[in-house]
Design goal:
Elements (H helix, E strand, L loop, with lengths): L1 H19 L1 H14 L5 E7 L5 E7 L24 H9 L6 H7 L3 E3 L9 H8 L9 E3 L12 H13 L3 H17 L19
Parallel strand pairs: 3-4
Antiparallel strand pairs: 1-2
Helix pairs in contact: 1-4, 5-6
């Protein structure tokens, strides 16, 4: 029952968010276009509810010649691909704002497990153990506020499972406000291939 109500609130809140944040969208679009050639939005195939595929949208933070379908931390030298505007957008998580469109379309939720890349088979398989592939992926989630990029795959899937077990309005509200705190502190963001071996298991 809550999932149906959650979906309605997702739509309403994301619609309101799109209207209120439209000035930020316009500013970011101008900044991206002034710095580099290419599209404003970046889209990438991800895993949705029931392991169906969908395209996630982000503001483009990297140059158009960046290797595709590869997590940023696996690139040999990611800094050479990230634009100056992109670096700021990533640090502040503003690059994630276009996912409001994914929420409006019903392919994502505001709160839920972050959508895995279509070829992150190990993460997808691990999430199956906890039924974490059975709900809409989220803009943010329990794993995001408990480590984000710093988490190895097994720990990330375990946290996604904890979210599923405790799914409720209170859990979603907790995730939402703790996400704001995490973003303001720029916690858990990792770039580059020079991390420890466990950090190589992270999504982009």
């Amino acid at each position: 029952m809550y999932l149906k109500i959650k979906h309605i609130f997702d739509f309403l809140f994301s619609l309101i968010g799109l209207i209120l944040l439209s000035p930020f969208f316009l500013t970011i679009i101008v900044a991206i276009k002034l710095e580099s050639k290419g599209p404003v939005l970046f889209k990438q195939k991800r895993i949705g509810r029931g392991k169906t595929h969908f395209y996630i949208y982000k503001f483009r933070t990297m140059k158009v010649d960046t290797p595709k379908d590869m997590p940023t931390h696996l690139l040999e030298n990611p800094e050479q691909y990230i634009t100056k505007t992109g670096r700021f957008l990533r640090k502040t998580s503003l690059d994630e704002l276009p996912q409001i469109l994914n929420i409006l379309s019903g392919s994502m939720s505001i709160i839920g497990p972050r959508p895995a890349l279509w070829n992150q088979y190990d993460l997808i398989e691990e999430r199956d153990k906890y039924m974490a592939n059975s709900v809409r992926p989220g803009l943010t989630g329990w794993a995001q506020i408990n480590g984000r990029d710093e988490l190895p795959i097994k720990q990330k899937a375990l946290l996604d499972g904890e979210y599923i077990q405790n799914l409720s309005p209170l859990m979603d509200i907790k995730c939402f406000f703790l996400t704001i705190v995490s973003v303001l502190r720029s916690e858990g963001v990792v770039e580059g291939a020079s991390q420890t071996e466990s950090s190589r298991d992270k999504e982009s």
